[in-house]
Amino acid sequence: MKRDLSDADVQAAHERIHHPISLYLKVWGYLFVLSTLSYLVDYMHVQGIVRWTLILLFMLLKAGLILSIFMHLAWERLSLIYAILTPPLVLLVLVRIMTIEAHYAFWTRAIFMGGGG
Amino acid sequence: MLQTTQDRRDKEVITPILREIAADWSADQEVFRHTHWGKAMMWIFLLSDSFIFSCFLTGYMTMRASAVLPWPNTAEVFALHIGGRDIPLVLIAIMTFALISSSGTMAMAVNFGYRRDRRKTAALMLLTALFGLTFLSMQAFEWTKLIFEEGVRPWYNPMGAPQFGASFFMITGFHGLHVTCGVILLLIIASKVARGHYDRTGDYSAVEIAGLYWHFVDLVWVFIFAFFYLW
After folding, report:
1. B89 contacts in A (CB within 8 Å)?
2. B36-230 sits in which CATH class?
3. What is the residue extent of each domain of chain B?
4. Count of Cβ atoms closer than 10 Å to residue A9 Cβ
5. In a mutagenesis test of the B interface, which of A39, A41, A76, A90 is the best target, namely the one with the most B β-carbons within 10 Å?
6. Which pLDDT value is given to residue B2?
7. Mean pLDDT of A77-86
8. How far is CA A112 from CA A116, B153, B165, B198, in A?
9. What are B85's strand-pairing partners?
């Protein structure tokens, strides 16, 4: 529906950009810690499902911090956030399809090409 | 004739809810009205760019999952010989920290831009570009090592699966290209900031838009680091 934002609202949106520098330093620190943790996953030779879970967890946390704070997505209008964050979800379909395809290619190579190729 | 067809379609198909969504989104009136046009365009570009990188990473996943030869252990391939022993993946870790630091300084530059602090904005953007150059030089070192010492090619890899070379050069190469473009963009905007161009126009949005691009480059590296180097 039509919703006219007054100048005061626009002004308020600009005011919210004025975060203290300490916020960015804090996020910077979190990103350093998360990167160190994901590096330690490799350094400590964590293997199997725990390794993949930890890698994905640290990756998503880092991506979330960069998107929401550094790229100011947390303070954007909801329609812009949806416009940006929902389309990449279809990539999960691509990943699923390509997983099936990869397994098919692997077994074709393993069974019919003597394991080479 | 046209009118009646339109009327029937309205009654039968387009419910009030659908019309409301169409009204919100048509002509970008409601959705992006209070967003700077450059910022909205940059976000749309970044969205399309994230699809490009997603295709590369999905391609890498497909090639790795279907490779019959063993996949090289990235921890060993990217290890550095420091102090008499091999430290696994240390070069990539330093590259990650350089890029995160550049993101931190860029976020501060955007903040000072909105406070109209010309000197600090330009200085922080310059620092960001320097971190970017640090990242690029380390990547150049990594490529040189892999090509000349390990003998990896896009079509061949002495350590096992040839698909490793293809995905490595494609993914990190494309990311490096983005970092290079980002450094150039940052230097251009920083010099405009320093010369007071945005003080005259009264609009520092260009700094924020360049910042969005730079943070995206860091964001992509987060995914490359997780999927290519750590997985």
Report:
1. 39, 42-43
2. mainly alpha
3. 1-34, 36-230
4. 12
5. A39
6. 56
7. 85
8. 9, 27, 25, 65
9. B82
Residue A4 pLDDT > 50, yes or no? no
Q: Provide the pLDDT for residue A5.
A: 47
* Percent of chain B surpassing pLDDT 90: 65
Residues 6+ apart with CB under 8 A from B11: none
Full-model pTM: 0.85
Chain B CB contacts of A72 under 8 Å are 110, 208
Query: Where are chain A's structural domains?
Result: 7-77, 86-117
Q: In whole angstroms, give the CA distance from residue B97 to residue B134.
A: 11
Tell me the pLDDT band of B231, cut-offs 50, 70 and 90.
confident
| Residue A56 near chain B (CB below 8 Å) | yes
Are A70 and B61 an interchain contact pair (Cβ–Cβ within 8 Å)?
Answer: no
Identify the sign of the CA torsion B175, B178, B184, B186: negative
* A112 part of contact set with chain B, CB < 8 Å: no
Choose the mutation target among A1, A18, A42 for the interface with B, i.e. most B CBs under 10 Å. Answer: A42
Separation of alpha carbons A104 and A111, rounded Å = 11
Is pLDDT at A87 greater than 50 in this prediction? yes
A8 touches chain B (CB under 8 A): no
